[in-house]
Protein backbone atom coordinates (compact mmCIF):
# COMPACT_ATOMS: atom_id res chain seq x y z
CA UNK A 1 0.00 0.00 0.00
CA UNK A 2 2.84 2.41 0.89
CA UNK A 3 4.49 1.61 -2.47
CA UNK A 4 1.38 2.82 -4.33
CA UNK A 5 0.89 5.94 -2.20
CA UNK A 6 4.29 7.42 -3.07
CA UNK A 7 3.80 7.47 -6.88
CA UNK A 8 0.28 8.84 -6.41
CA UNK A 9 1.57 11.63 -4.12
CA UNK A 10 4.33 12.46 -6.62
CA UNK A 11 1.81 12.61 -9.48
CA UNK A 12 -0.47 14.95 -7.51
CA UNK A 13 2.49 17.15 -6.56
CA UNK A 14 3.69 17.26 -10.19
CA UNK A 15 0.24 18.36 -11.37
CA UNK A 16 0.06 21.06 -8.70
CA UNK A 17 3.51 22.36 -9.60
CA UNK A 18 2.77 22.23 -13.35
CA UNK A 19 -0.09 24.68 -12.84
CA UNK A 20 2.29 27.16 -11.21
CA UNK A 21 3.71 29.79 -13.58
CA UNK A 22 7.10 29.73 -11.89
CA UNK A 23 7.81 26.21 -13.18
CA UNK A 24 8.28 27.68 -16.63
CA UNK A 25 11.23 29.66 -15.25
CA UNK A 26 13.06 26.39 -14.59
CA UNK A 27 13.39 25.61 -18.28
CA UNK A 28 16.99 25.94 -19.55
CA UNK A 29 15.97 28.54 -22.17
CA UNK A 30 14.33 30.73 -19.50
CA UNK A 31 17.18 30.25 -17.02
CA UNK A 32 19.69 31.67 -19.53
CA UNK A 33 17.67 34.90 -19.66
CA UNK A 34 17.63 35.38 -15.88
CA UNK A 35 20.75 37.49 -15.52
CA UNK A 36 21.34 39.28 -12.20
CA UNK A 37 20.18 42.51 -13.88
CA UNK A 38 16.91 40.90 -15.03
CA UNK A 39 16.28 39.41 -11.58
CA UNK A 40 16.86 42.86 -10.03
CA UNK A 41 14.22 44.36 -12.32
CA UNK A 42 11.70 41.58 -11.66
CA UNK A 43 12.17 42.18 -7.94
CA UNK A 44 11.48 45.93 -8.34
CA UNK A 45 8.37 45.72 -10.55
CA UNK A 46 5.74 44.46 -8.07
CA UNK A 47 5.83 47.82 -6.29
CA UNK A 48 4.53 49.73 -9.35
CA UNK A 49 1.10 50.07 -10.86
CA UNK A 50 0.54 48.68 -14.36
CA UNK A 51 1.27 51.81 -16.48
CA UNK A 52 4.49 52.57 -14.57
CA UNK A 53 5.48 48.90 -14.64
CA UNK A 54 5.26 48.96 -18.43
CA UNK A 55 7.41 52.11 -18.65
CA UNK A 56 10.06 50.75 -16.28
CA UNK A 57 10.11 47.45 -18.18
CA UNK A 58 10.69 49.21 -21.50
CA UNK A 59 13.50 51.39 -20.14
CA UNK A 60 15.22 48.40 -18.59
CA UNK A 61 15.41 46.64 -21.95
CA UNK A 62 17.46 49.55 -23.23
CA UNK A 63 19.96 50.11 -20.47
CA UNK A 64 19.48 48.01 -17.37
CA UNK A 65 18.98 48.83 -13.70
CA UNK A 66 21.33 49.87 -10.89
CA UNK A 67 20.95 50.57 -7.18
CA UNK A 68 22.66 53.78 -6.02
CA UNK A 69 25.04 53.22 -3.11
CA UNK A 70 24.60 55.31 0.03
CA UNK A 71 27.92 56.82 1.16
CA UNK A 72 29.05 57.55 4.71
CA UNK A 73 28.31 61.23 4.03
CA UNK A 74 24.61 60.47 3.36
CA UNK A 75 24.88 61.00 -0.42
CA UNK A 76 23.78 58.31 -2.87
CA UNK A 77 26.22 57.68 -5.73
CA UNK A 78 25.98 55.93 -9.05
CA UNK A 79 27.51 56.05 -12.52
CA UNK A 80 25.87 56.01 -15.92
CA UNK A 81 27.37 55.93 -19.38
CA UNK A 82 26.36 56.56 -22.96
CA UNK A 83 27.81 53.58 -24.87
CA UNK A 84 29.22 54.21 -28.33
CA UNK A 85 26.60 54.21 -31.13
CA UNK A 86 23.70 53.10 -28.89
CA UNK A 87 21.77 56.28 -27.91
CA UNK A 88 20.91 54.91 -24.46
CA UNK A 89 21.88 55.47 -20.84
CA UNK A 90 23.49 52.45 -19.21
CA UNK A 91 21.95 51.87 -16.72
CA UNK A 92 18.68 53.48 -17.74
CA UNK A 93 17.12 53.00 -14.29
CA UNK A 94 18.69 54.05 -11.00
CA UNK A 95 17.03 53.04 -7.73
CA UNK A 96 17.47 55.01 -4.49
CA UNK A 97 16.20 53.26 -1.35
CA UNK A 98 14.98 56.57 0.13
CA UNK A 99 14.79 60.29 -0.74
CA UNK A 100 18.03 62.24 -0.60
CA UNK A 101 20.88 63.58 -2.72
CA UNK A 102 22.16 61.58 -5.69
CA UNK A 103 25.57 62.21 -7.21
CA UNK A 104 25.87 60.88 -10.75
CA UNK A 105 29.14 60.28 -12.56
CA UNK A 106 28.16 60.42 -16.24
CA UNK A 107 30.46 59.41 -19.07
CA UNK A 108 29.90 59.91 -22.78
CA UNK A 109 31.67 57.07 -24.62
CA UNK A 110 29.86 58.00 -27.84
CA UNK A 111 31.16 59.89 -30.89
CA UNK A 112 28.22 62.31 -30.60
CA UNK A 113 27.67 65.26 -28.24
CA UNK A 114 25.03 64.61 -25.53
CA UNK A 115 23.46 66.50 -22.63
CA UNK A 116 22.06 64.98 -19.46
CA UNK A 117 18.97 66.94 -18.39
CA UNK A 118 18.37 65.77 -14.82
CA UNK A 119 15.41 66.51 -12.53
CA UNK A 120 16.10 67.85 -9.06
CA UNK A 121 14.17 69.22 -6.08
CA UNK A 122 15.54 72.73 -6.60
CA UNK A 123 16.06 73.13 -10.34
CA UNK A 124 16.96 70.82 -13.20
CA UNK A 125 20.63 70.09 -13.62
CA UNK A 126 22.16 70.28 -17.11
CA UNK A 127 25.32 68.29 -17.67
CA UNK A 128 27.08 69.01 -20.97
CA UNK A 129 28.80 65.90 -22.34
CA UNK A 130 30.98 66.55 -25.40
CA UNK A 131 32.35 63.55 -27.31
CA UNK A 132 34.34 61.14 -25.05
CA UNK A 133 33.93 63.25 -21.91
CA UNK A 134 32.80 62.77 -18.34
CA UNK A 135 31.01 64.92 -15.79
CA UNK A 136 29.32 64.88 -12.39
CA UNK A 137 26.01 66.25 -11.23
CA UNK A 138 24.24 66.32 -7.87
CA UNK A 139 20.48 66.16 -7.80
CA UNK A 140 18.12 66.14 -4.81
CA UNK A 141 14.88 64.22 -4.37
CA UNK A 142 12.84 65.11 -1.28
CA UNK A 143 9.93 62.76 -2.03
CA UNK A 144 9.55 59.18 -3.23
CA UNK A 145 8.56 58.87 -6.86
CA UNK A 146 9.61 58.33 -10.46
CA UNK A 147 11.90 61.01 -11.91
CA UNK A 148 12.72 60.91 -15.64
CA UNK A 149 15.91 62.22 -17.24
CA UNK A 150 17.06 62.37 -20.84
CA UNK A 151 19.10 63.94 -23.59
CA UNK A 152 17.30 66.97 -25.12
CA UNK A 153 19.56 67.19 -28.19
CA UNK A 154 17.84 66.61 -31.53
CA UNK A 155 15.76 63.41 -31.27
CA UNK A 156 18.09 61.56 -28.88
CA UNK A 157 15.33 60.99 -26.29
CA UNK A 158 13.07 59.65 -29.04
CA UNK A 159 15.80 57.24 -30.06
CA UNK A 160 16.06 55.80 -26.53
CA UNK A 161 18.04 58.25 -24.41
CA UNK A 162 15.53 58.31 -21.57
CA UNK A 163 16.28 57.24 -18.04
CA UNK A 164 14.52 57.01 -14.71
CA UNK A 165 15.43 57.52 -11.07
CA UNK A 166 13.18 55.51 -8.77
CA UNK A 167 13.12 56.97 -5.27
CA UNK A 168 11.62 54.54 -2.80
CA UNK A 169 10.11 55.36 0.57
CA UNK A 170 6.79 56.21 2.17
CA UNK A 171 4.66 58.87 0.54
CA UNK A 172 3.46 61.46 3.08
CA UNK A 173 -0.29 61.16 3.80
CA UNK A 174 -0.97 64.60 2.29
CA UNK A 175 0.53 63.47 -1.05
CA UNK A 176 -1.35 60.17 -1.36
CA UNK A 177 -4.05 59.87 -3.97
CA UNK A 178 -7.43 58.79 -2.66
CA UNK A 179 -9.01 57.15 -5.67
CA UNK A 180 -10.03 53.66 -6.70
CA UNK A 181 -7.67 51.55 -8.79
CA UNK A 182 -8.22 52.31 -12.50
CA UNK A 183 -8.84 49.67 -15.15
CA UNK A 184 -6.19 49.66 -17.85
CA UNK A 185 -6.64 48.35 -21.40
Task: Please name the defining characteristics of this protein.
single chain; 185 residues; alpha/beta; Immunoglobulin-like; four-stranded mixed sheet; 4 helices; 25% helix
Describe it.
This protein is 25% helix and 31% strand. The protein has 4 helices and 10 strands; from the N terminus they run ααααββββββββββ. The protein is of the alpha/beta class and 185 residues long. The strands form 3 sheets. Strands 1-4-10-9 form a 4-stranded mixed beta sheet. It has a 4-stranded mixed beta sheet with strand order 2-3-5-8, with no helix packed on it. A two-stranded antiparallel ribbon has the order 6-7.
Map the helices and strands.
Blueprint: H1 2-18, H2 28-33, H3 36-44, H4 50-63, E1 65-67, E2 69-70, E3 75-82, E4 93-96, E5 100-108, E6 114-118, E7 125-129, E8 133-141, E9 145-150, E10 162-167
Parallel strand pairs: 1-4, 3-5, 4-10
Antiparallel strand pairs: 2-3, 5-8, 6-7, 9-10
